[in-house]
């Protein structure tokens, strides 16, 4: 099957924006913020609507954000009041720059094959002792849901992709915060660069 994930987000950007921009991610965000220096530099990796970038910016953090969808970048830029860059995880090329990387429901579109390289790129983007937050839908393997391709994760998979480059601080489950999605379970990983 042809991967049309980015096309899906370009074609459905407004409805996706509207259904995610007000989702309450405060529980994960609060725990992420506790691990960061005040006013630190954060990369919102695959920022979608820009919701979390805005919250972090409002809390005094310096934000850089990117997404693979041109239409999501446009909407997130408007919300955030700054440019959101257009590129994919596989093009990430920062070195020792960020205090934290927030990858909320975004790495789940990276293929199993590409995941080790992408995790390495995220690690290299962080300063020493930088923190990564990543979330995936709970499961195992790759699948399509409509036009979008997903990589699901369980605790064992998260440990396997993170443990060589990160000290894993916590892996925990949570339920989806969007109305009507309460039956969907997410895996949340907090890790510190070795």
From TrEMBL:
Keyword terms of this UniProt record: Methyltransferase, Transferase
GO molecular function terms listed in the Swiss-Prot or TrEMBL record: methyltransferase activity
Coiled-coil region: none
Gene3D superfamilies for this protein: Vaccinia Virus protein VP39
Keyword Transferase: yes
GO BP term, pick one: methylation
Protein name as annotated: Class I SAM-dependent methyltransferase
InterPro entries listed in its UniProt record: Methyltransf_25, SAM-dependent_MTases_sf
CDD domains with a match to the protein in the record: AdoMet_MTases (cd02440)
Annotated EC: 2.1.-.-
Limits of the Methyltransferase domain: 42-130
